[in-house]
Amino acid sequence: MTGQPQAVHTRLPVPSRIDAASGEARRAQLTVQRSARRVTLHPKYGRGPVAVDVRYLWTGAPDAPTVVVQGGISADRDVVTSPAAATPGWWQGLVGEGRAIDLRQWRVLAIDWLESAELDAPSVSSEDQADAIAALLGELGIHRVQAFVGASYGAMVALAFAARHPQAVARLVLLAGAHRPHPLATAQRSVQRNIVRLGQASGRVEEALALARQLAMTTYRGSEEFARRFDAPPVQVDGRFRFPVEDYLEQAGRRFVQRFDAGRFLALSESIDLHEVRPEAVTVPATLIGFASDRLVPLTDLCELQRRLGGGGTLAVLDSPYGHDAFLKETEQLAPLLRDALCA
């Protein structure tokens, strides 16, 4: 790696519609940094210090308090994008002007997850991700963030962050993530990783990665959604019966292969299953949000986490047909909870 990348400062485009003068002034002040900073980390499974470039997005009102927002292993730093972008951010429905995480009130910071190859280590831990965010905060001159909002793997990293850097965060907001993976979820992910390894060994990596993603989709979504969407008889195609759900799964697999590679998938999937944080070590107050239909992070784990948290916490349980992916789908239900949590 060569010299440290320089941060690029841009401004969000002003919509063509003319609003009130005060609204225009606030909108013109929103800024975006989408860049990278080089930091030094000591990976949990590494052999010593390593320099790594942390790719980040930092967007919102420039003088507003910062909120860290991180999602699942397939999420990236683009939590939100500009209106002119071809693809919306992965949490665009909840992050933006006037939305639950209001960019006129908060400045959102997110990173691309690190993988083991970048750390010159056999595995990457949730602690490594937490330390990368902490080091980035130091580089950006941020001494303390208002909140760390984490969903799925992001919630795991948020817990590791609070346990290791308690003075750097005022509050946690944890969606569909706990202090440890459930053993059944680990079993399911282990099968997915073995499918990908078999593909690597046989020279059919993309097929294997797509198949692993198809299997993962059956764990991300709820039984109710599958029953509603795919309750139709099979049809005969090319000498075999084809079931309605297969089109959905194959499309999900193709999309995943277009933006993910096998090495990154293996590293981050394994990182979930290596995660473990002692709840008593988390002294930061927390808001927990779980979903009754989530089969990856059962409510029993969230109840245990809430009971054992060193800093105390509340637990809200939402009904949704979308299972673990409800944190991506239930925008209307989540918006008031996020607003309240950030202002607590």
TrEMBL record:
Q: Which residues form a coiled coil?
A: none
Which InterPro entries is this protein grouped with? AB_hydrolase_1 (IPR000073), AB_hydrolase_fold (IPR029058), HAT_MetX-like (IPR008220)
Quote the Gene3D superfamilies the UniProt record gives: alpha/beta hydrolase
The record's listing under NCBIfam families reads: PRK08775.1
Which PANTHER family does the record associate with it? Answer: HOMOSERINE O-ACETYLTRANSFERASE
Is Transferase given among the entry's keywords?
Answer: yes
Domain of life of the organism encoding this protein: Bacteria
Alphabetically sorted, this entry's keywords are: Transferase
Q: Does the keyword Transferase apply?
A: yes
Catalytic machinery residues: S152, D294, H324
User: What is the originating organism of this protein?
Assistant: Aerosticca soli
* Gene Ontology molecular functions: homoserine O-acetyltransferase activity
Residues forming the AB hydrolase-1 domain are 67-330
What is the name of this protein?
Homoserine O-acetyltransferase
Biological-process GO terms, alphabetical: homoserine metabolic process; methionine biosynthetic process
